Amino acid sequence: MFRLISIFLAGTIWFPEIKADEIRLDFTQKKVGELPEIFSTSLLGKGDPANWEIIEKPAPSSVAKANSGNKNLATSRILSQTSSSHLRNGSPICLFKSNEFGDFTYSVRVRIDSGAFRQIAGIVFRAKDEKNFYALLINSIDKKIMLIKVVNGKQVPSWSSLGELNLPKNHWHTLSVVCKSDRISCYHNGVMINNGNPFSDSEQLKGKIGFITFRDTTAS
After folding, report:
1. Domains in the chain and their CATH numbers?
2. Which percentage of the chain shows pLDDT scores above 70?
3. How many Å apart are CA 78 and CA 57, to the nearest integer?
4. Which is it for strands 191-192 and 183-188: parallel, antiparallel or unpaired?
5. Which of 18, 146, 171, 176 could serve as a FRET partner for 123 with CA atoms 20 to 30 Å apart?
């Protein structure tokens, strides 16, 4: 689901304050069917737990353009949330345990695979824990890009794109965030959302990064 470019989910993390410093997650040597120990998982809400694991699936290369979609795919090992349950009334979260980040660029390839009731997945950033974080999301059913903030387990008023966008499931998208101080710039397939304007929020200035799905959504 998630292939880090700058870490649901293939990627790399670049830190503006350290020139050319980068973290790139490489799952090629990770065992299929298992979750690497560098991640921790939780469920925000109630219901059946999720299953995060490494799978093999055709995916874009790490050097593919942000808007490359499903072009030139090659079988790769990627992180995926593979369990769908209509009894899950919550959001499965997978966090990268090792670091907290303040100013950074975080870019991930995301693909929504299925979901009868919800088709929402994306990236978590500046997470204090599983109940306090920001998330940039793809909503395939409603055809929207969303930026949400969760405080003490509750979603506060958030932003979503106007009109309908082409956000099909079974299609690779690139989600990126650039955080610098209280400024948060969000991108979908290389295009800045919110009419090219950054968001501003000084409440959570650093935290962990990770991935998220909603209810019965599965994603890679």
Report:
1. 2-219 (2.60.120.560)
2. 90
3. 7
4. antiparallel
5. 18
